[in-house]
Amino acid sequence: MSLEMNQDTRLESNGVRLERTYQRFMLGQRWEHALLILSVTVLLLTGLPQKYRAAMWSQQILATPERLDLIRQIHHIAAIVLIIEVVYHLFHNLYLLFGRRLPEDIFPTWQDVRDAWQMFKYLLFLTKEKPAAGKYNFEQKFTYWFIFLILGMMGLTGLIIWFPLVVTNFLPGGIVPAAKLTHSTEAIVTAIFIIIWHFYHVHIERLNLSIFTGRLSEQEMRKYHAAEYAHLTVEVRDTTEEESGRDAS
Amino acid sequence: MAPPSAKGCYLARVWILLGAGLVLGLVLPMLFYVTAEAEKSNQETEKYCLSCHSDLDLSTTLPSGETLSLFLDPQKLEHSVHSQAGIECVACHTEIKTYPHPELEYNSKRELSRTYYQSCWKCHSANYEKTLDSMHAQVAEEGNLDAPVCTDCHGAHFVRPPDEPRTLISDTCGRCHTKIFDEYQESIHGGALFQEDNPDVPVCTDCHGVHNIHDPRSAQFRIESPDLCARCHADNQLMGKYGLSAEVYDLYELSWHGVDVTVYKAMWSTIWHESAVCTDCHGVHNIRTSDDPKSLVNPDNLLKTCQECHPGAGPNWTNAWTGHNKISLERTPFLFYVDAFYISFTRFVLWLSIGYVALQAFRSIVNRLRRNQS
Asked: Do B253 and A204 touch (CB under 8 A)?
């Protein structure tokens, strides 16, 4: 993780306040997220009219049998794009992890359970302290793994209902209606989750554009990723202060 | 005063008597005469015509070389609805007023019946005009003069109620549509009709219509055909009588095939579509119960039926079909558990997201208010 050392925020020159920023996402990760938004949006927009084909609004969108075919084709193309992206993401990150070129921040730990518990107490006014988050707080980890698992299931079930004849050659037939049910239900669950949970956290709670800009400001780092900030700045901090603090505790 | 009054009285009496005489002598006989004419006419003209036409050997040869029998069985004619209603021969045979009759101007028997049947219109205009819109009329227009006209189904002279007994309806259609009739007779519907005289099973006209029979091979007929089946098979009371499920139609509409058909029906009813309708799997005239080994949907034949549209289907394929059944633990346990899981999973994710976000929003609003106060 590179730590960009701009000029200190407290230094002002020529009336321009310069702020130190920290890199949060690599360029590749930002592109992956953009691809994810694009493909999931297209999949949702082309999937919903298919799910609700019996409804009037859907029938107006479909309009002609040719357009139904077109919508299906777009859905399939977006699905292929997303599958490729997920497979790339998986192998690329495994490669980086094994090469020790990617820290293991994203994996859930017991600390996340403790953080969630403390957050729960905080939200119920039982404590005044929010948990100090690392690079990814427990909400963000939950979002990542939830979407990761959902996408896996969506891809799997999507392929089953796309190629039911192939699948039933080696799997029991009952898997097809179950896949249809799963695909159709999880799509709605995912949409609900992204709109309520994810959009609240990145748009309403605070506007967090780091997935597009790649960077977080020092202020944001301190406020929302205190543990990560402490970890990154430990070298530049006054070591004596750090040690005296430890002695005191 | 007395003589003039007596004179006036006398004159008045004369006038009354004259008037009464006129009424009795002229008007009343006229009334009686009219009733007598009406009563007598059908008996008399029919009898009069039959005095020649009850001769078994009475016949004529048409220019086509066909022999046209001119014999009418008086006993059968007596039972005709028209004869009983007092409708005379000349009501239809309008050109025959005298004996000897005018020359027949028809070349063939068919030409004769295709001309004479037009007199049905005089009384039965509504049904007559419906037939002009029918498949049979369309075929005739295209040159097939064998296509039936009124008299081919109802008879010409010996017209009886067409649905007494009910089997007569299907028998009538079966006179021409022999192959379909044989299939129908062996089906669950036809079998119940002919063997048990079942009043609930459909006869030909229940599905095809009566006078305005349309082409059942059109896209429109195909897309609307599930509704035909639903008229009986979605009727709880009727299906309950035979221990059949009345939910089949609703569950079909939710199925892969059914959803497709719903969209086509709503949007593109005249465009041909391939998604299966009832008859694609169950058969058309040869519908049998699913436990009949000859049924297209019998478990032993089901895969073959699926393969008609899904050529590559393997033996596991038929299990992908849940039938017209609701998700149940007994029939489809896997699907049942998946469904049960997703019912709770969906609720869990929904309430977790809403609950957590609501708590967070509340806490952050409280924080902001506190900060503003201090």
From this structure: no
